[in-house]
Design a protein that fits this description.
There is one protein chain. The protein folds into two domains: 105 residues, PH-domain like (Roll), CATH 2.30.29.30; 59 residues. The chain is elongated, with a radius of gyration of 27 Å. The chain is built from four helices and seven strands. Strands 1-2-3-4 form a four-stranded antiparallel β-sheet. A three-stranded antiparallel β-sheet has the order 5-6-7. It is an alpha+beta fold and 195 residues long. A hairpin with a 2-residue loop joins strand 2 and strand 3.
Length: 195
């Protein structure tokens, strides 16, 4: 699986972080409550009001079915959007694809070297029982915190991100060392040619 934006030359996806299936509980509990409320209103109205004709009763029934189908459709859209949110961690950066609705898609990138701190939070009984949490990545320069809610096993994901940050730092130091070695060799060659 690759992010929607292109990878740089030599960049490789190391970890793909998805939202927990537990986040669907919130989506579908809300949908069940909405459908329950629609049915309850229909029952109360049916007992207390006389709509007068078969056509009126048919129209109310049609409206009820339409609202229930709309609620189920809303739940399906919520499920789709939930699975579209991903965080890709490469050997160079973090790419966060955030989808809030069908018409909004944001892609945020953070270079691993610019991550100053990272953490996770598990809030509430469900988060502890089901094992999900919220990842937080804070950057040095723009003082922004990137938040990825409903992450499965956030402790494991933070550990992987920390390993990749350290590896990125080691690679950067190795590159700096090879550049410095190359410039010293050039200086040695240049100075020996002057003699």
């Amino acid at each position: 699986m690759k992010p929607s934006i292109g990878l740089q030359e030599g960049e490789v996806v190391r970890v793909v972080i998805r939202r927990s299936r537990a986040s669907l509980i919130a989506v579908w509990v809300a949908e069940v409550l909405v459908i329950g409320a629609i049915i309850a209103v229909y029952i109360v109205l049916g007992r207390n009001m006389d709509f007068g004709s078969e056509a009126s009763n048919g129209m109310i029934g049609f409206l009820l079915v339409f609202l229930i189908i709309a609620a189920i459709g809303s739940g399906l859209v919520g499920t789709y959007l939930n699975f579209k949110n991903k965080m890709f961690v490469t050997n160079r950066r973090v790419i966060y694809e955030k989808v809030e609705n069908l018409l909004s898609n944001k892609v945020k990138t953070i270079e691993l070297m610019k991550i100053e701190s990272n953490s996770f939070v598990k809030e509430g009984i469900l988060a502890h029982v089901l094992g999900y949490g919220t990842l937080k990545l804070a950057t040095k320069s723009d003082e922004t915190t990137y938040v990825f809610p409903y992450c499965d096993s956030p402790k494991k994901e933070i550990a992987m991100i920390n390993e990749l940050i350290e590896a990125s730092k080691r690679d950067k130091m190795a590159q700096m060392g090879s550049i410095l070695d190359g410039s010293h060799q050039m200086m040695d060659t240049g100075s020996s040619g002057e003699k």
